[in-house]
Each structure stands twice: as C-alpha cells, then as structure tokens.
Design goal:
By secondary structure, the chain is of the alpha+beta class. It is built from 20 helices and 23 strands. Strand 12 and strand 13 form a beta hairpin. It is globular, with a radius of gyration of 23 Å. The structure holds iron/sulfur cluster (SF4).
C-alpha cells in the first residue's frame, strides 16, 4: 500500500459491528430493528441485514451499504414476523463483500436460526479447519459464519438450543457478543471476558412484554425501550414471548475485560456504561487530562465529534474557555471520492474546517480522543496554525496507542502506530505542536469508576487478555519483543 493510499484511510481505529434484535409479537419487528440498527450505524457502515422469523419461516434481507440504503419501506413491509435479528457490519475478519454481510441464517433439525456477531475470534483458523472437515458448506470468509456452523453442528448432534449455543460458544476464543434468533426464543450471549458490549431492555403496555437486545443502550432509546441490564460477561440470556423475566445463566467464568476504547471513542456518547452516559465519562477524562497535563492557553477546542466532551471537561477543570474552533462536515462517508494527492497538497479540506475568527491570535489547546498513525493530527495542526493560532498544544484523552487490536477493532499493524515507533518528543516534532500530552492509563481507568481489572487495555500496554493464533499475532505485531510475546 502506498503512503498516499494509507493516508486516505481513516486515522482512527474502526469499530467492528453492531447487533440488534427484538422479540415482539404483534409489533412491526423489522421496522423496529431498522431503527435499532440506525442508532448503531456508527459501529459499522459497510453492510446491513435483518432476518425476521414468522413461525418456522425466516426471511432475510442484507446488502452492502448503510441501513438507510439497504432498507426502504417496501422491503420492510415484506418482512412481517414476531422476532427480528439485525446487524451492521464493518469488516475485521473477511473482506467487505455481501456474502460476508450478516445475520447468518442456517437450518437445523429444530428449524432455522439467525445469528449476528460483534467481535473477532482469535482461533478462527483452527475453528475453520474443524468446520471445513464436516459437511458444512462455508459461503463466506467470516468468523461469524464459523460460530453459526458450530451451533448448527451442536443442534443437529442432538442438543437443544440453549445447550447447543453453550457448546458452540465453548469452541470459540476471542471477542463475541451474539444475538441469536430461533423460531421460539431470542438468545443473547457474551464471551467470558465481555470484550464487546451487549445490553437488553423491554417495552410494551397492558401486560405485553417485548424484549430487545442491542450492542449499546442508544439502540434501546431510539425505539422507546427501557434499559434493564447488560448481558454479563460469560452470560447466556434467553427471552421468550410472554415471559416476565428472561432466563439468565453463566456459561463461562473469566475476568471481565471490557474494551476500554468503547468507553473512550467507539460507543456513542449517549450510550450508558456503568450507570452513566459515556458523555459524562468523556467529560471526566478531560478533567483528569487537565490536571495531569496543565498548560497556559487562551482557548480549548475539541476535534469533532468525539473530542468535544473531553474538551469541555478540560475547559471546566482548567478554567480555560471552550469554543468551537473546528467545524466538521458530517456527510463524508466511506464511499466518498477522496481528493487526489495533488488536491490534498493544494489544501483541500474535506472533513474539518477551522474557524479563523475564533482561533486567530490565540494559544490553543486542542483535544482529540486518540492518535493512531498521526496523519490526520499533523494536517490538523497545520490547519490550526494557518487559521492564526499562535500556539498549538495537543492533549489526547487516551494513552499512546502502541499495540494493534485482535478483538474486533480494525487498527493498523504495529509498525504503523506512531506511538510504537516514535518517542513523545519525536511525535511532537512530527505533528508540529508546541506540546503534546496523553492521558495516563491510570487516569483513563480510574475515571470510569470501575475496577481496573474490568478493562482490556491491550492497545495501550500490550497485555492481551486472550492468547491468539500465532499467524494472527505475527500479522500485526511487528515490533513486539520476543520475550513479551512469549509471556502472553
Ligand atoms: S486491544 Fe484495545 S481496541 Fe482491542 S479490545 Fe483491547 S482495548 Fe479494545
């Protein structure tokens, strides 16, 4: 890949997927799932799909594109039913093709099922070998299809749904938050470490009790459902129409390792984690950052949208006024035709435009949530100076990203992560800032008001909670010292 091509790619880690499911007899379950997926669009923009159960029959519609491009009212009207499972995808395992879109629908001796997966298996190679050795006809290159075939095998081997789901999950290693629809029940399951989030809620009046499962609570809010709880790490939850309580059981006991990047950046700020919105958490890490890395300046600005809450927190803790110094074009999607190298050199600014009348003559603190390769930050600093900022101090509301992710987030290989290659002073010089400081790992974790062992922080410290296949490890970890690799 050329440097120019690399520069075209987003300079942020990218979320893997969103899952949403609803069990609501008498309701327009396809439409409700459409809205749920719409709220979770930030988790995946490459493909979308919904499978609807009507008795023993299941109807599936999936395609490449945003939820609003894949579905229209005519398509949804042709999908009546009582239970729906939906999925937004961004490819981490398997290429971006429609055969890899989800949900995966397979038939068993007990009827069909539809499976939607958020996460990434780290034993996909081994599982693929085992599945390929059976009669299974793999039609995609995703790890999600492997989980589905493991479930099909368990059901056809004689197990009931619940036992079969446990058996299939037991063959998987890595991150997997699943929603599984069957003709009689909806299931939700999280891997033993709970790396990716998954929550459930309910809605309904006059004795109706409808169930909803969503990657984030913002998916519940959009359809007016009440948040009830998260699916706990290592938990399997079964929802049946008419039941007043779901049936909950643990299938795995592991230390919890929620992805801390969900808190910092991936999940929507209005989604709730640990009893509060992420907006509140992100404001708080801005406050911690201000205390840890104070600087004299005239104005605090945030890089929209994700840097704004931390910038507000930084401003409140430091007393330096907050202002909008950068305006974001919100309509730049993945399919947007990127400017050529020559256009970029000529100064074309597609996504962010600084406000010279706000910035001119000011010493600026600019807050961003993370630096991955540093390509965007460098251009941003140049643009702020061009707009008249006399000093640019960059503050990052996460620690330096030094390691790639193997659990469902698309990060660059380690040799492309700027903090893995350069010292703080070298990064300062590369970005052209007057000063640069990152949030400490302790500050990031303490601000969450949850025990530090509750988080995966591997992209900041290389402490991977789940061992992965060697081939997968060596494809991304280019700078890892042999000793550390052996100790994992
Ligand atoms: S490695 Fe980083 S991005 Fe991946 S799960 Fe852990 S904290 Fe999240």
């Amino acid at each position: 890949m050329s440097t120019a091509d690399r520069d075209e790619r987003p300079d942020k880690p990218e979320e893997a997927c969103g899952v949403f499911a609803v069990l609501a007899p008498g309701q327009q379950v396809a439409n409700l799932t459409y809205f749920g997926l719409y709220a979770l669009q930030h988790r995946g923009q490459e493909s979308a799909g919904i499978a609807v159960f009507n008795g023993d029959k299941v109807r599936l519609h999936k395609d490449m594109g945003l939820v609003s491009q894949v579905f229209d009212q005519d398509v949804l009207a042709r999908m009546p039913g009582v239970l729906a499972v939906g999925h937004n995808r961004y490819s981490t395992t398997g290429s971006s093709r429609v055969c890899n879109a989800q949900p995966v629908v397979l038939m068993t001796r007990l009827g069909p099922f539809a499976l939607a997966h958020n996460g990434n298996l780290v034993n996909a190679g081994e599982l693929r070998e085992a599945i390929a050795a059976t009669d299974a006809e793999l039609t995609s290159t995703t790890d999600s299809e492997l989980i589905a075939f493991a479930l099909q095998e368990a059901v056809n081997g004689g197990l009931g749904w619940k036992e079969a789901i446990r058996a299939a999950a037991g063959r998987c290693r890595g991150a997997f938050s699943l929603a599984i629809g069957t003709p009689g029940a909806l299931f939700a399951l999280r891997d033993g470490h709970g790396i990716r989030p998954l929550v459930f809620g309910s809605f309904g009046e006059d004795g109706d009790h409808h169930w909803v499962v969503s990657s984030e609570s913002c998916g519940l809010d959009i359809i007016g459902a009440t948040y009830l709880d998260e699916v706990a790490p290592g938990e399997l939850v079964q929802f049946r129409a008419g039941d007043l309580e779901p049936e909950r059981s643990r299938w795995s006991m592991q230390p919890t390792k929620l992805c801390v990047f969900e808190m910092i950046y991936f999940a929507r700020p209005d989604s709730r984690f640990f009893g509060e919105s992420l907006y509140s958490y992100r404001c708080r890490i801005g406050e911690v950052l201000a205390r840890e890395s104070a600087v004299e300046a005239d104005l605090v600005i945030g890089v929209p949208d994700s840097g704004i809450p931390a910038a507000i927190g930084f401003s409140q803790a430091s007393g330096i006024p907050f202002a909008d110094g950068l305006i974001k074009n919100r309509y730049v999607g993945r399919t947007f035709i990127q400017p050529t190298q020559a256009m970029r050199e000529a100064g074309i600014r597609v996504k962010l435009n600084p406000l010279p009348d706000v910035l001119s003559g000011k010493r600026i603190v600019v807050i961003d949530d993370s630096i991955v390769r540093g390509t965007t930050s460098r251009k941003l600093v140049a643009a702020l100076r061009e707009a008249g900022a006399t000093e640019v101090h960059m503050r990052i509301s996460s620690p330096p990203v030094t390691h790639p992710c193997f659990y469902g987030i698309d990060t660059d290989n380690q040799d492309q992560l700027i903090a893995a290659r350069l010292s703080l002073q070298q990064i300062e010089a590369h970005l052209g800032v007057d000063s640069l400081a990152y949030l400490s790992k302790e500050g990031m974790v303490e601000a969450a008001h949850a025990a530090s062992t509750n988080f995966c922080t591997a992209c900041f410290d290389g402490k991977y909670p789940i061992e992965m296949e060697e081939e997968m490890r060596s494809s991304k970890l280019m700078l890892e010292p042999a000793g550390l690799a052996a100790s994992l």
